[in-house]
Amino acid sequence: MTAREGLRDEAMREFISSLSRLEATAPTWCSGWSAHDLTAHVTAAAQERANLIEEYVAGKPARATRSWEVREPPFRAMPDAALRERLVEHAARFESNVATLKDDDSILYTGWAMTAERLRMHSHSEAVLHRWDLVGDDGISVRLLSDPAMVSHALAAFEALPALAEAQRWHRPNLVPGPVVLRCGGRHDVVVTPGKGLSAAPNGRGAVIELRTHELPLVLWGRCPMRLRDPNVNAETIEDVLRRLLDA
Fold this sequence. Notes:
This protein is of the alpha+beta class. 49% of the residues lie in helices and 10% in strands. The protein has eleven helices and six strands.
């Protein structure tokens, strides 16, 4: 069994597997980021989470999470083959370290006190989203993104981390002209209320945008689902897509 195959989290295994089919310079759906840049981002996050858990277990004082501007450049500077090895190493370290935490332990990560379960879900969510950034709507991405936990985690993250750019987007008073319902059949709606943010509701009120289950977490995190892109436009933001759909 390889180190990658030994990882428990399917999303991280699939992220690493997808990288094996891409060159370092391959473009991604993260504008301006290559596959190498995205790998550095995921690796640095895994390392930071693993380090914070190790420090907590060792009884060291809590510290602030290092910003991506500090933690990512050393990984971006690595040769791609070495970087991919470090990704597997730190992903495995994170899984090993988080398994040592007790149910009532919490680790302060990016200002959010996370239990072991929440840390695992946060890592999983990042791997799912960034795998989509690499390969788009293949069968694995559609299945992993369609998990309802992806939506509930996004809403929890935006509530706990209001400084996130993704959270701030949904609080803009001029993002949409009025309440908008993001609807996936058979699931609770997510309602966008201008100036107030997001809320889950069984039957939301407002202009309805129908989404497939795998598209909702992409929209929440600022991605433009492939089905909703305008083929006549070179690049669209999620704000562009929402306004176009509402005007249709």
